[in-house]
């Protein structure tokens, strides 16, 4: 049997690909990730006591918008990298834009503050635990998003793992906002980003093993 005959044989036996399978996989993965992180957050940390008041402020929703915007870019990157031979393209720009904006906002805030107030704006009261709290809350999403990605046949496993982990951690960070008392953009620009970066680094290291198909 020559090559052309083999290709013809494989093509005639191939089932049609469902164009909506990726969307359904990611929709289910994100739903489970969000619910899992929420239940974990409520069980381990609890909601912040003044949430009803904080949620009435623009600053709270600005904090929430940081991981929410990152999640949009991370989802675009993950969905593209889940397909064989496809690059993330401009999705990384969508990820980077909110990071740059919060860095600028944090720098302006610290620069305008009195010298004795700057450390509290940057460190808050939870800088030691914040990245690791995000890491813990990312576990449900890490599992579900990796399962969704693996079933779609990624080829750049390290980069796909980093994107999938960033998606999981951005969802976890959105959930974490409902517990975290920090209201300084200077804090979010360092410690929220550090938490998401930590999970992404783990995803990059685990990708070649966990996403192999």
UniProtKB/TrEMBL annotation:
Family annotation (Pfam families): NrsF
Tagged with keyword Membrane: yes
Keywords: Membrane, Transmembrane, Transmembrane helix
Listed transmembrane segments: 26-47, 59-79, 91-114, 134-152, 159-178, 190-211
UniProt-recorded name of the protein: DUF1109 domain-containing protein
């Amino acid at each position: 049997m020559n090559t052309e005959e083999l290709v013809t044989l494989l093509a005639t036996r191939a089932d049609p690909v469902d164009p909506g399978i990726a969307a359904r996989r990611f929709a289910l993965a994100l739903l489970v990730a969000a619910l899992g992180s929420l239940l974990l957050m409520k069980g381990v940390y609890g909601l912040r006591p003044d949430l009803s008041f904080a949620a009435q402020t623009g600053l709270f929703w600005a904090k929430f918008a940081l991981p929410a915007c990152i999640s949009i870019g991370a989802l675009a990157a993950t969905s593209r990298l889940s397909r064989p031979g496809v690059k993330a393209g401009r999705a990384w720009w969508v990820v980077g834009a909110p990071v740059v904006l919060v860095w600028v906002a944090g720098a302006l805030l610290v620069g305008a503050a009195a010298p004795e107030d700057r450390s509290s704006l940057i460190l808050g009261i939870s800088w030691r635990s914040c990245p690791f709290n995000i890491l813990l809350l990312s576990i449900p999403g890490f599992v579900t998003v990796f399962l969704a990605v693996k079933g779609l046949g990624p080829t750049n496993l390290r980069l796909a793992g980093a994107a999938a982990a960033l998606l999981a951690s951005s969802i976890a960070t959105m959930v974490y906002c409902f517990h975290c008392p920090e209201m300084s953009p200077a804090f979010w620009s360092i410690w929220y980003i550090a938490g998401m970066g930590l999970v992404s680094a783990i995803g990059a290291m685990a990708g070649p093993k966990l996403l192999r198909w």
